[in-house]
Amino acid sequence: MKNMAKIMGVLLLLLTVTGCSKDENMANRVSNGNNVDKVISELIDKTESENNSIDLEGEASIKSKDDSEKQDQIPQKSDDVTMDVDYDLTKMSSDMVYAMVFQLMVEPDAYVGKTFRMKGKYYPVYYESTAKYYHYCLVEDALACCAQGIEFVWGDGSHVYPDEYPEEKASIVVQGILETYREDGNDDYLYCRLKDATLEVINK
Amino acid sequence: MNAIFSKLTMYMQYPFVRYALVVGVLIAFCSSLFGVMLVLRRFSFIGDGLSHVAFGAMAIATVLKVTSNMLLALIITVVCAILLLRTGQNTKIKGDATLAMLSVGALAIGYLLMNLFSNSSNLSGDVCTILFGSVSILTLTQTEVWLCVVLSVVVVSIFVLFYNKIFAVTFDENFAQATGTKVELYNLLIGIIVAVIVVLAMNLVGSLLVSALVIFPPLSAMRIFKSFKGVTICSAALSVFCALIGMLVSILGGTPVGSTIVAVDIAAFVLACIIGKVLRRWCA
Fold first, then answer.
1. C-alpha to C-alpha distance for A128 and B256, rounded to whole angstroms
2. Which residues of B touch A22 (CB under 8 A)?
């Protein structure tokens, strides 16, 4: 019994240290399902980065100047208190945000017209059928194996992509009013998005 | 402390959080009731085997794009449980080998099917969700919540109605048979109930961690109590308490639901071991 208690103590300690970790590497490892794909994608990334490093050396100084100009245009995170927010998802844990966004997708009508504020990663998506870029705030759960994204329209939609938008996968905070819409044409799907959204980039 | 309480109050306003807590508590309660019997009959591993079968069933449901994955998983797992119990005694491949074969076979076939036929953009995410539960409990539909509630009520009712028979079959199968109890029928009933519990518990902790929900509370209770009744009551209370604490910690701290509940179960087991030891020394 003494040994059993000791073993359980060590196991509990191990579980606490490893199981509840928020380490990025750990999260990525869990999210990668196929090892063959992982190795191939790592090789491709390595080759690309080697090629890019040669090409980019000359452009580095120009790009850094462009980036700094671009970052000046996007509001950085401030400590301003958000006004009239119905659902502030920035105060929720990742699992809860994921579950909330899932609910939005399942029952959008219950949340239309409400103001949402959420934190996530910026992902632009180009949709060939409409020949348009759509901008998403993507939220992952605690295991980082599931992700839910919500589309947003920054301001009145007049901002130019990619010049005025942040880098892909940048950490952002978006605040906007939820609305549903349908695309013109044969597309019967009902989409959700945050309209009149404000966009802040979080400095990490 | 106030900050935690206000955060919890905020979360409780969301219906999906309330659903998750209700379903979680019911699943933990059901699993612990039958867990006592499984542990006593040395059938602890059957939950693990059936959970892998349920994973295979979930994979088939995903590939076939069935509306209710849980319902199909329930049917397939119950059929496998019946087959496992029926063919366990008079076959060339004996009990534990059949279970191991079925367990790894279902796991492998399930993953293979999902890899070959699933057109999901996030295959690893789908597999991860089924294996570890992830946020399944927070994303239940209203139909799934009602299905969980109805099945839980059925499981508890069966346990209460057949308590004496289950007790007899658990402790001395031969004696129960000699006194006219239809042992095979009760074994079949137990198999079906365990399959139902496994499928329900998959929503809470995922298929890989189902066994923990079935085994840890009874084992912890056995450290402190010695009677069947005492162990069953303590196991149920402990299981509900651990599931509730695990879910609350997970919701507040943003940790994965399934593994947090199991971690709390492990902590409770260690605590029960210490309490049991102290009680024994005290009584001696």
1. 36
2. 254
Residue A137 maps to a domain: yes
Nearest to A145 among B134, B254, B266 (CB): B134
Residue A77's φ and ψ, nearest 5 degrees, are -65, 130
Residues B87-140 pLDDT 10s? 555 566 666 788 888 888 988 988 888 888 866 666 676 777 777 766 677 878
Give residue A103's domain range. Answer: 87-201
ipTM above threshold 0.90: no
Assign residue A159 the CATH number of its domain: 2.40.50.140
Question: Is residue A108 in some structural domain?
Answer: yes
Q: What pTM was computed for the model?
A: 0.70
**Which residues on A lie below 8 Å from B122 (Cβ)?**
145-147
User: For residue A19, what is the nearest residue in chain B, using CA coordinates?
Assistant: B259
Domains in chain B and their CATH numbers? 17-283 (1.10.3470.10)
Count CA within 13 A, CB hemisphere, residue B224: 19
d(CA A67, CA B8): 41
Decide if A100 is inside a domain: yes
